[in-house]
Amino acid sequence: MKKESFLDKAGTRSVLASLVAILIGMLAGSVVILIVGLTNPSLGISGAWEGIRLVVGGLFATGRDTVGNLSFGFNPASFGNMLFRAVPLIMTGLSVALGNKAGLFNIGAPGQYLAGTAASLFVALSVPTSAVPAWLVWIMALLTGMMAGALWGSIPGMLKAYLNINEVLACIMTNWIAANAVTWIFDSSSLKNVLEGTKSGYIYKTSTVINDVIVDGVRTVAGTNIPEGAQVLSTRGGVATAKLGLDSLFTGSQVNAGILVAIVIAVVIYILLSKTTLGYQLKACGANRYAARYAGIRDKRNIVLTMALAGALSAAGGALYYLSGNTEFFWNTYQSLPAEGFNGIPVALLAINNPVGVIFSATFMSMLQICGQKLTELTAYNEYITNVIIAVIVYLSAFMLVIKTWIGKLRKGKAVEK
Amino acid sequence: MDHENDYVIEMLHITKEFPGIKANDDITLQLRRGEIHALLGENGAGKSTLMSVLFGLYQPEKGEIRKDGKPVKINNPNDATALHIGMVHQHFKLIEVFTVLDNIILGAEDTKLGFVQRKEARKKAEALSKRYGLAVDLDAKVEDITVGMQQRVEILKMLYRDNEVLIFDEPTAVLTPQEITELMQIMKGLAKEGKSILFISHKLNEIMEVSDRVSVLRKGRYIGTVNTGETTTVELSRMMVGHDVQLVVDKSPAQPKETVLKVTDLHVASRLYKHDAVKGVSFEVRKGEIVCIAGIDGNGQTELVFGISGLEKCTGGKIEINGVDITHAPIRKRSEAGISHIPEDRHKHGLVLDYTLEQNMVLQSFEEPRFQHLGFIRFGAVRKYAERLIEEYDVRSGQGPITVTRSMSGGNQQKAIVAREIDRDLPLMLAVQPTRGLDVGAIENIHKQIVAQRDAGKAVLLVSLELDEVMNLSDRILVMYEGEIVGELDPKKTTVEELGLYMAGAKRQQPKKEALA
Amino acid sequence: MPFLIRQTLIYAVPLMVVALAGVYAERSGIINLALEGIMIFGAFMGVLFVRTVQEWGWFQAAYDAKNYLTLQGFCALAMLFAAMMGAVFSLLLAFAAINLKADQTIGGTALNLLAPAVVLFFIRILANQNTLNMYKDDAASWFMLKKSMFGYGRKEEMNFLGSTFVDKVYVATYICILVFIVMSIILYKTRFGMRLRSCGENPQASASLGINVIGMRYAGTVLSGALAGMGGFVYVLTTANCSANGDVAGFGFLALAVMIFGNWKPGNICGAAMLFGLFKCIAASYSTLDINGDGVYLLKNLNINTNIYRMMPYVITLVVLAFTSKSSRAPKAEGIPYDPGKR
After folding, report:
1. At residue A112, what are phi and psi to the nearest 5 degrees?
2. Does B355 lie at the interface with A, CB-CB under 8 angstroms?
3. Rounded CA separation A370/A392 (Å)
4. Where are the domains of chain A?
5. pTM of the model as a whole
6. ipTM of this complex prediction, to 2 decimal places
7. CATH of domain A76-194+242-379
8. In chain C, which residues have their Cβ closer than 8 Å to the Cβ of A385?
């Protein structure tokens, strides 16, 4: 048997194809920036150049120096935030990747993400930490969130398996139902943030300590400053993901142990898919549902199971993000769906549905977001350019196979020349 | 003009290559005006490729096509149509949801201001149908009419375009013997009206009956052209395969023992749930015999197998394996009860094409303790097992057990399935068209394996559309017609002609139910 | 009652047109999951067009001269422009799906991500906020027919037909209905339509009859884009405060559901769209809905949470799909890339 060179391996070619997709995506974003810059006199070519530099290297941007030029260097806050924001993307990316492996396009990640967020926030802010230790509440919240996501994901799964309804359409509908349901639940809940009355539409951070108190016979809530003479009934909240010293490594950032949890889950999913009989079944269903059924594999059960697992993964993304304790949840979700859910699609596609690859592609996506943020902060451009780049990458992923063939041909052409 | 040399179509020295294969290698074919010219060859001999070249679907690397003596270039079907060349494809090119009329005019519509003029078209179609005796219902949807009528629609499509060269690509494969006779008459009638016909087939009897001349292809090469009147089936078959074919399978008489499979009054719904595709079928298969279900495609054989294997739900009746009722058992349970299954469609059901060969070898058995431990796959055991099967059954592939099955040849894919199913060593084997689309060598190999299974005391239920296979391989023949078993025949005591009558529904024995009662 | 009919029509008509957009693509063999994105893009382009024309001042001049016909002409032009831009945008899908044989679901999703991203990027640059209005305060409402235009006074009421089909109605709605009818006839009665439909069922057969499958699929996708782009603009004009904000709240996907519910047939789609329009209308305005005109707000008095009404269209879509999916018959070749070599 002829030994394949490194560059001829299918895996290498897949990675190369992803890199080409990223490159073209970045290029497209830069072109848009350039065009806007050239047609906009207040930006001009220098403005455009700043924009392009930030799109590519925004992670290393440290602001502007005294003369007003962009300065670059190691920015621990950006690095930490990149890792922090990668967490939900890893989880939704895994969710979409798992679906793809089993032949299901899980575009329902946003709804599952919301379901997980809502359920975990509810548990985290309702279970009295005066009775149950905070770490246990944290675990309970995460697990409840994942269960809620699994339940939500299994709805389109069941519709697909038993009624043969296109999962894409079913997922979209459940997304919007979730968006409205979450608004409804929090609208009628007591979790709206009334202690820090500055912003409306947000609920408490999970780290907020809420005391249910009775003041002058009236039941109310109080923060850490309990009014005098008040009777404390119970204490809620104060739940947050452990930092494990990561915050001191990346000062000024929101990073916490959530990233480690996400990486562990990714590895577990990798093992599940490639080493177990369950993974063998799920992939067989995805590659050829008829052959799987012929072989006695229960394809319908596997479809529901896949969607439930995918739902749990997306939900864990939402839970890990908001249980960090330093992010607030905007509950008026009925108007728009969380971008983290949809971004699971490019993350999974870029990783070619490889769970370990998802860790890297999610980190890349999260880096793009940091770049977008810097772009908004430092120039007249805005963060939506990163969404353009992501969309271009998804577009290219749709014909990844063609790109791979091109790379293959390029290699063959060279081989002939030798 | 000398009639002998009045060629309407000449294909000279045509060469067409596909990646890795020369489908046509220097082939010359000359079609006289008003003749029926048969093109004979095995599956994969290059007949369809040659016709696709003539019809403009493929461009040849080398060679020349002449129409009425003048060189022409046919780049697409439009060019072919302009030259009045028409083709009835092996798989009909019909739009199922359109009416017959719309199908006839599609691509050759007369319009006013862009609007289709259906009234005029109807008149023309009706006239043609009357003139050539092609009865069709112009307002019926194609999905609702019989295969025979669909073929008449295809012929009308050609006539509607005033074609003079008509290509028939394996037109009889899906027809009953009676429909075939009818088609032969129609073809003769067309030739008499001055149309020139190219008739592609690998069925010698039909060629002997209808054609004036025969050209033979073998493995992409041109072997020769003979006048039908001056040749015999034996000579043609030798030209086709290159050596004397051993049409008889070597096997000793069957020695059936206890019943393995017992089917009683089985009903299975058709895919569309409109009616039952299998209507009250009863039979038994015993240890050490090969029972063959014969019949024209689409008479419920597929559904019968789906009902037994569990791919389709049974709507009534009873199925027993060694006395165990499995009528409503899930597929896995049936498998465990003792059914192995070589499926009809190896790409749809038989293999996960994107899986490697070794992964496909354990498609049903991956959950057995020998291949897994606590849910984790024992990769070493799987590899060893696959290597043994590859060795024993001579499955050839590029990279052995780690070859992705999609990249394997059809014959080796089928061998892999046969290896897997035989090695499961179960009392009943369902083999559905196990040799479809394979070359002679592979067919011989698979036939031997099936007979060996029988001799090892297995019960075999074979479903086949090939009459040769039915007659040679089986110990008993059950003929299915419109969802019922209409006859049980002994291959040693019956003839192909008699079998044909049963298959066409022209003859039937007393229903078995009454015989039992 | 007039209000209910009028509002239902306003929701149903864009839905109908966008569903027909889906039909054109799918009947030619391309799954157009990008309807949502194309709507967003078309809406933005239409709004931008109106905004730009207003800046040139012609608009104000026509309004001052009470030249309503010219105003409606501008509106029609904006629709045309949105349609053209939708068509251009859909070329991205056509190219990927037809030339590159891409996965159509992923391709469509990419467009659904791309449209809001591009649109919001430019809106932020143009307007320095997240919504782009049609410029002047109530300028967009100039496109609405009002009873005052027909000489009715403020206190005067039009008769039932008038108040249902004329007062507070958009000419755009009627243009859409007309386009819907014309496009439906083209699909069924013309050579072009017949050939297009054949490509979604059995492209190999079409090719064997000399039909240019690739051309037909391009035509189907581009027309689909045009209809969806126009639908998107009409949607924001009539129901979304005349502003583009990179979102049409899943309307494109609802249209897909309407298409499936309508079994890919224009007549059925029309009925399905009315049903969905009614629910959308109830969701949007149940609190001010006085069904029989007796001054009692029945639905409001039921005291059901707003979010439930908002959820309704999506829940009903799922329920309807659950009941109809068994009998629905999608074009046979949709979603399968056409490969001329395969027979």
Report:
1. -65, -40
2. yes
3. 18
4. 76-194+242-379
5. 0.87
6. 0.86
7. 1.10.3470
8. 117, 121
